[in-house]
Amino acid sequence: MEPFIHLTAVAAPLLRDNIDTDAIIPSREMRSVSKTGLADGLFAGWRYIGIGTRDPDPEFVLNQSAYADTRIILGGANFGCGSSREHAAWALAEYGIRAIVASSFNPIFQGNCIRNGIVPVTLDLEAIASLATALAPDPQALRITIDLPTQVLTGPDRKTHAFPIADEAKEMLLDGLDAIDLTLKRRVEIDHFIAADRMRRGWIYPG
Amino acid sequence: MTTGLTIFEKIWRDHQVASLADGGLILIDRVLLHERTGGIALQGLAEAGRTVAAPRHVFATMDHVVDTLPGRTDRTIMPTGTDFIRATRAAANAAGITLFDIGDPGQGIVHVISPEQAIVLPGATLVCPDSHTCTQGALGALAWGIGSTEAEHALATRTLRVLKPKTMRVTISGKLGRGVTAKDLALHILARHGSSGGHGHIVEYAGDTVSALDVEARMTLCNMATEFSAFTAIIAADDTVFAYLKGRPHAPDGAAWEDAVAYWRTLRTDADALFDAEIMVDAADVAPTISWGISPQDSIALDARVPVDAPDRALAYMGLAAGDALLGLPIDGAFIGSCTNSRLSDLRRAAVLLDGRKVAEGVRAICVPGSTAVKHAAEAEGLDRVFRAAGFEWRESGCSMCFFAGGESFGARERVVTSTNRNFESRQGPETRSHLASPETVVASAIAGRIADPRLLER
Ligand code: SF4
Which of A127, B5, B52, B402 could pair with B338 as two cysteines, CB 3.0-4.6 Å apart? Predict the structure, then answer.
């Protein structure tokens, strides 16, 4: 996983609440048993005219030249609700999205983002709306900066916004760490715990 | 002075291998997988050269992609569905885990078969790469949905690194009114508190109304905790749960059963435990409830009108205007199924209303039992005959048209009353208009050909 430290990039507003993972990647776009080949299906229901086509809808923000090379999405409340499909995070990452700014995230989606190098930035709706307004005149030039070590997002208007992120998530994003390797270092500790647990809760261990 | 612990905190305490920043390394007792997101987790694990640490704690089923038409095989209506089925089968066999394959009597929707076979147990930690894993909290387990990469983590290490959620108690008191079910309760809570209402919290459902629900109704209530944006839901296991589990295929027996029950009895929230948030619900305030919009929180009493401040986007999608009545709205489809409402008790209640009646002309009505075992039990009672005689299709078990995978759907702009849990845009098919409701309301509406009140059908 690519580490995330600092990013200055084009941001695209999708200021809706409850953007669900079905909207991020429709089920019909998950064609193969694979974590790749999903970027084309990102937001397919909104991005293309007609189900199953690839004719770009000029109304959709990511199709507009002003928002070419978008790396940051500005969303609303409860971003990533719905199905737990990690394909949503895989599709976003493959498309090139490195951060999502929303007023709240669905917990499963948030975990999936962190495991795929996408920073979930929580800001209040008012701040997000003001960022969208500030960048609108020239999205290619009026970029947003996210600095993960200091947990600060800077808008095109130079206004800074501190954002919260859990320590563990921050560490994984900064180092691009694979959580499994990290945990396997504790194998002995886990085995001891299981041995003791077997004595206490033998009934949970299949016979 | 120390304060008491909630059920969640007790289970967490007993599973915490180590504490981590903001959370803990938590021992995972059961991992469940399905062919939609589970096959890819097994495959990812194998590709990384890792193995499943405890294969006997892992179970997989075919439910999402598999067809529900009679005589099904690996072939599916969903394009490339066969690949998901075969890849999952191959990966499950290679990993040595238990697979409930097509044709297996244990096959069914993952959240239906797990309680049915006592794979989930009170006080256990259980994860599945599926958001409705919260359903299983109804048995007093800490069960939650994760992503595929996290599933790989749980498979490889028997643990997960978990951010500790905040705690919320939803206390429901009083007697539910006539014709009001657990589904109505779930929709009512969403309507009152919004789809972000439970955000960041593990929700404990408590109160005399909840204790009075049977285990299957408790599952319906917990099922929609993910629509509430909660980490998950849990209900204290009690004698009702113990009686439900006893003798099921994976339940402990003999001395192990006695040990387990003794431990399970300790998993109740202490009287002096504190929650980060509390919500009170008066059961008497709950009416049969139905969704009108494109988020589960867009729900109202069946006889209410679409709110005047309803957003245009939702109204346009649903083909409604603010102030419209839902009762009497003509429908095209009726669906009974999904991990919300497809268990034997759901089908029984629906069949009581359906017996001797007919689905209205022009309405496509489908019943999909939640598991092969539910289907067989329903057939043994003759419920299939009631559904069929009324004009319902009677299917093999699976997720079916709860979600659109590129295969079957009701069609664009078709209005469907459905016992499922999500009414997102295009959830049940491109541009399909879904109204979430109880199986009773689905049946009443199927018969009337319009959204209808099941209380008028009661016998
Ligand atoms: S029945 Fe529907 S909600 Fe339940 S697991 Fe299947 S697709 Fe998901």
Answer: B402
Q: Which two tokens stand for residue B195?
A: 């789809």
Phi, psi of B153 (to 5 degrees): -60, -45
Rounded Cα gap, residues B404 and B221, in angstroms = 23
Burial of B159 (0-12, 13-18, 19+ CB in 10 A): buried
CB-CB neighbours of B356 under 10 Å: 9
% of chain B beyond a pLDDT of 90: 97
Reported ipTM: the value is 0.94
Among B79, B149, B157, the residue with its CB nearest the CB of A86 is B149
* B165/B96 Cα distance (integer angstroms): 33
Mean pLDDT of the residues in chain B: 96
Pairwise CA distance, residues B151 & B34, whole Å = 11
Residue spans per domain, chain A: 6-176, 177-207
Please check whether residues B428 and B446 belong to one and the same domain.
yes
Q: Is the pLDDT of residue A207 over 80?
A: no
Mutate to test the pocket of ligand 1, among B36, B133, B135, B421 (most ligand atoms within 8 A of CB): B421
For the entire predicted model, the pTM comes to 0.94
Q: Which domain holds residue B32?
A: 9-162+238-264
Burial of B1 (0-12, 13-18, 19+ CB in 10 A): exposed
Kindly write down the DSSP assignment for every residue of B405-444, as one continuous string: SSS----TT-EEEESSS---TTTTSTT-EEEE--HHHHHH
Fold of A6-176: Aconitase; domain 4 (3.20.19)
Neighboring chain A residues of B426 at a CB cutoff of 8 Å: 22, 26, 45
